[in-house]
Amino acid sequence: VFFFRAGQNWGNRAYFPRHDRDAEPAEILEAFMAQFYDGKPVPGLILTSHELPGAELLAEALSLQAGSRVELRMPQRGEKKDVVDHARSNAREALGRKLAESGTQTRLLDGLAEVLGLEAPPQRIEIYDNSHIQGAHAVGAMVVAGPQGFSKPHYRTFNIKSAELTPGDDYAMMREVLTRRFARLMKDAPRPAAGGAPSGEPAEASAPVSQAPADAAAHRADAPADPAEMPAWPDLVLIDGGRGQLDAALGVLAELGLTGVPLVGVAKGPDRDAGRETFFVPGRDPFKLAPRDPALYFVQRLRDEAHRFAIGTHRAKRKREFTKSPLDEIPGIGPARKRALLLHFGTAKAIARASLDDLAGAPGVNLATARAVYDHFHEGRG
Q: Which pLDDT value is given to residue 120?
């Protein structure tokens, strides 16, 4: 799609709509346009590369939406045809780049499946990491990747909530994150468990947890018909950590009665050197990959994205905590009243020391609000 305003090219963007394989180009284009202009400003002239079968009806609908006449035209010659030809050339190049990237991603997934002993290339990889400073502002992060690369709409963050958790206990944090993630997944997208347990019911907790994808058919039961869509269940989980983190993750799945979810721990090398990572796979001795193995680079990229996302989330949480005001804890004190109090008194400390009369005398503050603020800072003693 090329965008022109007042004769000037305002840029372009490539779209890759999903469609039936038997659909004709004009049919695909017409369906795309109807969706594309839903909620967007409609120009007076739209040039297309194909003659649309329902052009008149579409033009009428777009005219109603725009409140003025909209013309659809497939130019045959001249400057407008040159513009359309240029757009088609760019579309072919964009498609070529996408196919090349997709092919590279496919090869990486194939290589990863081979080195980790998976039955098939993973369609959904979940990578987990934690971030905190001496246990403070602890968060867990999950990033997701698949055949189309990273899938940011599927990223998730987890505020560590357990009051019993020892600050800085990375194993306990990982257990909490994975428990919440997979318990929720079992509720939202139940799947048949290994051994024939009904959908939505975990296998008996006493059953051994096999991390080999023996129940691959059940595990892929949620796989979408369109390979470009992301399945709900992961067929590979990467844990940022060594044997201890992996054992913690295995324990979570055992408690939930889940099987057939391949888990791999990736421990950083000595001095946290990239390229010297050790892989921990249940049932195998720890191993390293060759320094130039493409699968190693791929795992590093996945882990680095999880680390980046976890650090970013942690920093945002820490910033919110630093900027939190004692006024935030008072019921009924919204942004407007908080702003009025701060403008009048200058600081939260000055508000806490103010008398009831002084609080009630602040602009925009009524007696009930003044009483609520005074009681909050004086434990109800008026």
A: 93
First-to-last C-alpha distance (Å) of the chain? 67
Angle at 213 between CA 208 and CA 217, to 5 degrees: 115
CA pair distance 372, 359, nearest whole angstrom: 10
CA distances from 73 to 1, 49, 52, 76, 309 (A): 15, 9, 9, 9, 46
Contacts with 212 (C-beta within 8 Å, 6 or more apart), sequence order: 117, 260, 262, 282, 283
Q: Give the residue-averaged pLDDT of 14-19.
A: 86
Kindly report the CA angle at 110 between 21 and 209, in degrees rounded to 5? 110
Residue-wise pLDDT for 336-378, tens only, equals 888 888 888 877 778 888 888 888 888 888 888 888 888 888 7
Distance CA(30)–CA(50), nearest Å, equals 9
**CA 72/CA 93 separation, integer angstroms:** 25
Q: CB–CB of 218/196 below 8 Å? A: no
Side chain identity, residue 226 = D
What is the token pair recorded at 195? 């051994």
69: which 2 tokens?
């006449």
Task: Centre a 10 Å sphere on the Cβ of residue 328 and count the other Cβ atoms it contains.
Answer: 11
The secondary structure element, H or E, covering residue 63 is: helix 55-66
Mean pLDDT of 129-155: 80
The enclosing H or E element of 128 equals strand 125-133
Contact between residue 300 and residue 277 where contact means Cβ atoms under 8 Å apart:
yes
Q: Which of 10-24, 267-281, 315-329 has the lowest average pLDDT?
A: 315-329
Q: Is the pLDDT of residue 116 over 50?
A: yes
- CA dist., res. 332 & res. 358, Å (int): 19
241 neighbors 170 (Cβ within 8 angstroms): yes
- Chain-centroid distance of CA 362 in Å reads 45
